[in-house]
Amino acid sequence: MKHGAIFDMDGTIADSMWVWQEVDRIWMQENNIPPSEELAWVLKTSTFPVSAKYVIENYDLGQTEEDVMRQWRDLAADEYEHAVRLKEGVLDFLQYLKDEGVAMTLATSCLKEPCFRLLHKYDLGRYFDHVLFTQDFNTDKKKPDLYLACADVMGLAPESCVVFEDIRPALIGAGLAGMKAVAVYDAVASEPWDQTVLAASASIRHWKDAKEVWNRL
User: Fold this and answer.
1) Is the domain of 99 the same as that of 75?
2) Same domain assignment for residues 37 and 111
3) Which H, E and C letters describe 96-129, residue by residue?
4) How far from chain centre, in Å, is Cα 67?
């Protein structure tokens, strides 16, 4: 019996995986930094503090690491508030689960300010009683910790929860938590779709298919 649903945000319920490339582009333009493969790789693969340390050490910006990170946070928050959209059909599915009495929690690696901007924009508090961030648990989604914490705050056993995620490592983490996991297609996700679905209990390419998949699990 399914009693709880756990949703990722970026790439799952929100069409937002493009945001950080746009943040990087705007920030480099504003700071007169020419694009380079090395810089692009650092910004894509490193944490905020590591990326900020790199740019301070390699570019004469006259700024502190915290200055740089604040600029990134502000640019991202602006994009989430004004440009990011929810994926088509996801609100219908969230409403369906709410009407069915399913507990729902958002579990995200997104920064808090951009996340809350998007939640407020679409009044998603109607659906999610809890929002949990990887940064608060000093973990990532390859591990089961965040998903187990979601089950705990909902007062549910892990096996009664279903997780919706768009990337393979997160789907694996959900499985390690003893939960069923549904792969959600995202065009910007880095892994090939056929490899992503292998880590999931089920998959959807569009949210209009979610109700049918949910009722089959």
Assistant:
1) no
2) no
3) HHHHCCCEEEEEECCCHHHHHHHHHHCCHHHCCC
4) 24
DSSP run (H or E) holding 164: strand 161-165
Range of the domain at 156: 4-15+85-216
pLDDT tens sequence across 35-45: 899 998 888 76
- pTM listed for this prediction: 0.90
Verify that 78 and 130 share a domain, yes or no: no
The whole-angstrom separation of Cα 14 and Cα 168 is 17
Across 104-117, average pLDDT: 93
By three-state DSSP, how is residue 189 classified?
A: coil
Give residue 71's pLDDT. 94
What separation in angstroms does the CA of 197 have from each of 95, 136, 200, 205?
Answer: 25, 28, 5, 10
Q: State which amino acid sits at residue 79.
A: E
HSE value, Cβ hemisphere, 13 Å, CA-based, for 138: 0
**Beta-bridge partner residues of 5:** 104, 162
